[in-house]
Amino acid sequence: MSDAAELLVTARDLWKAYDDGRVPVLQGASLDVRAGEVVALWGASGSGKSTLLHLLGGLDLPDRGDLRVCGLDPRAEADRLELRRRHLGFVFQLHNLIPDLTVAENLRVPALAVDRPRAETSARLERLAGEVGIAHRLGHRIQDLSGGERQRVAICRALMNAPRLLLADEPTGSLDEETGDLVFTLLRELAARDGIAVVLATHERRFAEACDRRLRVRAGKVSQA
Amino acid sequence: MRFLSLVLVNLRRHRLRALIGVAGIGFGVAAMLTILGIVNGAIGMFERILSTDSHYLVLEKNVSDLFFSAVRDEETAAIRALPGVASAHPLLFGIVSSPGYPVITCFGVEADDPRLARAEWRAGGRADFGRRPGEIFLGQRAAEFLHARLGETVPVGASALRVAGILKTENGFEDGGVFLPLAAAQALFHRAGVSSVVAVTLHDRTAGAEFKRAVETAHPGLIALENREFNQSYHSFRILKTTAWAVGLCAFLLGGLGVANTMLLSVFSRIREIAVLRVCGFSERQVAALIFGEAVLVAAAGLALGFALGAAVLAVLPQVPQFQGYVQAEVRPAVMAGIVLTALVTAVCGAIYPARFAARIQPAEALRYE
To answer: In this structure, are residues B364 and A60 in contact, taking their beta carbons and an 8 Å threshold?
Structure first.
């Protein structure tokens, strides 16, 4: 990835602790992410990968440090909302889809938040569903889907509002090896095609090595692996 | 999918819980509709008794209840003689009892009273009214529940009176009550020479202010009120209406707690899901709107259920013999609007805390929640 590409994430000296400071998780983590690159946050469970992703996505706030994502400050409520609505997509280890809704209904949820015209949403939904191979499942409920299908729906949902940055927290963690590979490949292909930057938290070396850049998260700090 | 679909999905998902909330509001609506319908019906009937073919009511000033009002016969005569007065009909209210029926409204009236003239006589006739002592005239429903027929005697208080006529009137109080000649009623109630109220008709209604002034100047102990004025100021009506709204609101309070409970359980059971909505870009306001939307839908369903239930109860109650025909429900549009508004406000108030809680869910924390 060229150094000239737009800097989407600038994180400097991020600190985060839980339980009134008794459980330190991030201790001065810093990283940059440029447009279009796929960056792996690689580390053991409990190393702080998910916490770092949550801070980047404005799902949680740093105790201190500087952070800009897509030119916005995730510490400000209005910026956080704007980030989630227009700039970011999230994929979690557990798909976090809404049960009792159909696949299509789940995919429409992000569009509801921004009140996008129905026709426009439908067109995008059908295109994305076709690309990730779940077009035949649009009318099915989440309960009727396999783990791999659910994760594909989750990826599709994350892309519904055409984000610039995808934050994926162990997206293959709950899948078998073969399905995990398929999901990872799909994620990479979609990101490459649409020029979406991806920050992928994973503990699996093979996925980390397949990314453009690999950052090691250890003891609350980020270093080049 | 639209925003409303998301609201409906959650209600469908927890049908029983939603139904409990609907039932809570529904019973509140039904209770309020029934109570207000009955009370307003009763007040309406009482108003019509007083306002029968009259423009003004003359009664004792500052009296707490019409039953205690005393307008002397000579005052009635003087009012009758005032210029502009077309007619003045005294009316003495009382309560009589008969075995098994401790409260029967009794109307002491003169033979030319318009309510007798307007009635449909089922037995006997108006010409017989007051001709012989010891006679009583029954409203048709009173005749039914007293199982009395023309010529039979009915026990009334300590006396036994002969039924000299049975008349059908449109007014439930009159139809379930009994009529006595004014003098006989005065004797029965130990109120010799007085009536409770005088219903006055003027030749020219626009001359009411003059009439009012004339009455109050000549008889400082009396007050003349236009029917509308009387209905608005009569303490007993006001107490009845206030009590009805208070009882209805208590029923709603319970309904509101039901909605609060339903919404709170609804929020607690999907904290993770709400966090996902936040991650997908829902603002705090949108999440709160989701919860309020559910509450409003619960209220709407509760209103439909409550109106149906209340209407059924109001249709059945007048047929119950024990009510002696006193139930003649009257549901005014303003009451309906008041009930709708109360139900919606109750539901929204019940949803305030759950909505606030839902809106403040922190996504990162909630996503760790199992």
So the answer is: yes
Single-letter code of the amino acid located at B327 = V
Distance from C-alpha of B49 to C-alpha of B104, rounded to nearest angstrom = 15
> What phi and psi, each to the nearest 5 degrees, are found at residue A60?
-145, 160
- The verdict on domain A7-224 having CATH code 3.40.50.300 is yes
Which residues of chain A from 37 to 96 reach within 8 Å of chain B, CB to CB?
Answer: 54, 57, 59-60, 81, 84-86, 90, 92, 96
Angle in degrees, CA B192, B195, B196, rounded to 5: 130
Question: Helices B3-13 and A103-114: crossing angle, nearest 10°?
Answer: 130
DSSP string, A172-213: TTTS-HHHHHHHHHHHHHHHHHHT-EEEEEES-HHHHHTSSE
Pairwise CB contact (< 8 Å): B367 & A110: no
Q: Does A100 touch chain B (CB under 8 A)?
A: yes
For residues A33 and A38, give the distance between their C-alpha atoms in angstroms, rounded to a whole number: 8
Contact map slice: B 305-364 vs A, CB within 8 A: 362-364
Residue length of chain A: 225
| Beta carbons of A54 and B364 less than 8 Å apart | yes
Residues of B in contact with A139 (CB under 8 A): none
> Within chain B, how many helices (H) and strands (E) appear?
14, 12
Beta strands in B38-158 (DSSP E): 56-60, 71-72, 85-98, 101-109, 120-123, 135-139, 153-156
> Could you give the CA distance from residue A104 to residue A142 in angstroms, rounded to a whole number?
10
- Reported pTM: 0.73
CA angle A179, A183, A187 (to 5 degrees): 170
Q: Which of B5, B280, B365 sits opposite A113 (nearest CB)?
A: B280
Residues in contact with B181: Cβ distance below 8 Å, sequence separation at least 6, in sequence order: B108, B109, B110, B111, B129, B130
Q: Does B155 touch chain A (CB under 8 A)?
A: no
Report the candidate in B16, B48, B204 with the shortest Cα–Cα distance to residue B115: B48
Determine the distance from the C-alpha atom of residue B94 to the mean position of all C-alpha atoms in its chain, rounded to a whole number. 21
Per residue in A73-122, pLDDT (tens digit) is: 999 989 999 999 999 999 988 888 988 889 999 999 999 988 888 888 99
**Per-residue pLDDT tens over the stretch A67-78:** 999 999 999 989
A contact residues 116-175, partner B, Cβ 8 Å cutoff: 118, 157, 161
Q: Tell me, what DSSP letter sits at residue A110?
A: H
Length of chain B: 370
Domain boundaries, given as residue ranges, for chain A: 7-224
What was the pLDDT predicted at A14? 95
CB A76 within 8 A of CB A120: no
Query: Sign of the CA dihedral B212, B213, B217, B220?
Result: positive
Q: What one-character-per-residue DSSP string does B155-182 give?
A: EETTEEEEEEEEEE-S-HHHHTSEEEEH
| Structure ipTM over 0.85, yes or no | yes
